[in-house]
Amino acid sequence: MKNFIEEVTWRGMLHDVMPGTEEHLMEQMRVAYVGIDPTADSLHIGHLVGVMLLKHFQLSGHKPLALVGGATGMIGDPSGKSNERNLLDEPTLRHNQESIRAQLSRFLDFTSDAANAAELVNNYDWMKNFSFLDFIRDVGKHITVNYMMAKDSVKKRLTSEAAEGMSFTEFTYQLVQGYDFLHLYRDKSCTLQMGGSDQWGNITTGTELVRRIASGKAYALTCPLITKADGTKFGKSEGGNIWLDSARTSPYKFYQYWLNTSDVDAEKYIKIFTFLSKEEIEDLTEKHRETPHLRLLQKRLAEEITIMVHSKEDLDNAIKASAILFGNSTSDDLKQLDEATFLDVFEGVPQAEIAKSEIESGIDIITVLNEKTSFFKSNGEARRALTANSISVNREKVAEDFVLSTKDLINNQFVLLQSGKKNYFVVRVV
Fold this sequence. Notes:
The chain has 21 helices and 15 strands. It is about 45% helix and about 15% strand.
């Protein structure tokens, strides 16, 4: 049995833990769960800390449960939120659950015969037939309103700052989550719930229900909420969440997010989001501090996590795509990019449309550079640039007699124009 608490402590993944948890885990194989919000059909990187906790738990010889909050997803968790969330119907929840299971299976072993194989559970399965009267009689009477009001997640929503106030539905959230813990304690011998530090109040309500109703002992552990050194929100880009689903966030964008991490954050994240050993990380950190311009930590972090979430092939493609802007890539490299990655790489680059029929007939490069795209203000300016050998089409230098045709299309729909080293223009063929 590996010491789980020791492992997550040196990795900076421990915020709060109930006394006695470490000893409890070292006695024998234990069962723990993390709740996952099923409001989308993909996890985003904000979920990853909880998933990594479950993986370390499994690697330590224990059994992890991933709880998809089908019932709680229908209510909305008030923790850290200023408004209620949209409530979902059952078919949507089931679809989201299956998508999340597929993503979790990249991290957790669900399929082996090992005693500590992971399980996915959905609290909707045990809450759907629980009547309101049964719930307030069997669960509600054991927790006082005073106890519930003392929780930070409730107090914050009841302050004068929160104009919306808090509905009764949300107020009962901690009871429903607490009952999940009680149910899993009885049904799966689960004695530990883990989550973000904002979940401490909800988790300890569960330990209290286990004590009062089942006369048992349960434990709580939370990890810090991940922050960025510059104060901006972790897991967000200008386009919104960084998702694990490649259809929502391309592997290239995913890779770039980690590659662009600051030095301070990279030192923290490489412990949390990879399974590299303490020795490897210390060695890498030392080398990084000696030569920070090489960005060794960021590169290794981005590589490890892109392979883990996507694949080695996706990583290779993301690295190739990254080199297109900064390296000596060729026309063939460009033509290997899929549409989504191409558009991600050249996001923000000016674009113009040209009819496919015109490309099929062939258009001379001066017309393309000026009249069709306004990349240059005049034919004379375009001609001078061509004479100076500073114009490239799809990374290959062209002269004044060049004619653009269908053989130059990337993915049958794009052409990349370039003037000098850094001025790009995308032609979209329609």
